[in-house]
Specification:
about 220 residues; alpha+beta; Lipocalin; eight-stranded antiparallel beta barrel; 6 helices; about 25% strand; globular; disordered N terminus
Length: about 220
């Protein structure tokens, strides 16, 4: 009797699946991650991308935290009113990443650049919350490179570092490393790398060998 019942249940399930097309051919919904906005109401393509990507979702939550802190800092540069205006322009620019060949890479860069700006302009933004996902900007003097290199780090999974010197900047992604922390990436001129292990820091850009760098106060 049990065998007949099991067979009947199996045939019934198969029939339901065939009619509703919801079993073997069903595609599970994409997971969504916590963000600063309601993913159920997301309309912009970039917002939908952020909702589906854990790394971008982390960056979004952290960036919103930095922005809200900047609004509380009367000594921020620029001031809170300008920070608020700039944030809206930034959101509009971030959403334009949907039209780029690599939307995620563009969005990562957008978040890293904005985090760099907010942290650079406010002491409160730089120091609040010991569990923050961002650090910097830190300044490094590298042998053979005249301008200081400013570095802002995002401790996401994987991590990201935004490097800026003179009129140049690059976003590098964290890579597995046997020792220290290593970031790599490719710009229009070639490959870049940034490696840090304690006080030992090496920066390499296209056309140069590894340059030894030392931390300096960022003026």
């Amino acid at each position: 009797m049990k065998t007949v019942t099991a067979l009947f249940n199996g045939l019934l399930t198969a029939s339901v699946c065939a009619v509703a097309s919801t079993c073997a051919n069903a595609v599970p919904p994409s997971p969504t991650f916590k963000t600063s906005f309601d993913c159920a109401e997301a309309k912009a393509s970039v917002e939908k991308l952020i909702c589906r990507d854990p790394q971008l979702a982390q960056m979004d939550i952290e960036l919103t935290r930095l922005y809200r802190l900047a609004l509380t800092d009367e000594h921020s540069v620029p001031g809170p009113d300008k920070v608020m205006i700039d944030q809206q322009f930034w959101i509009d620019a971030r959403n334009q990443c949907a039209s780029e060949p690599a939307p995620k890479a563009c969005t990562i860069r957008s978040y890293a650049e904005r985090a760099h700006q907010l942290r650079q302009g406010s002491a409160i933004v730089r120091t609040k919350d010991p569990d923050r996902l961002t650090e910097g900007p830190l300044a490094f003097r590298c042998t053979g490179l005249n301008p200081l290199v400013a570095a802002t780090f995002f401790s996401t999974q994987p991590g990201v570092v935004y490097l800026k010197w003179a009129n140049s900047s690059i976003i590098l992604n964290q890579e597995p490393s046997d020792s220290g922390t290593r970031y790599t990436g490719k710009g229009s001129q070639g490959n870049y790398s940034f490696w840090q292990d304690g006080d030992v820091v090496l920066f390499q850009k296209p056309g140069s060998g590894p340059m030894s760098c030392k931390a300096e106060p960022l003026g």
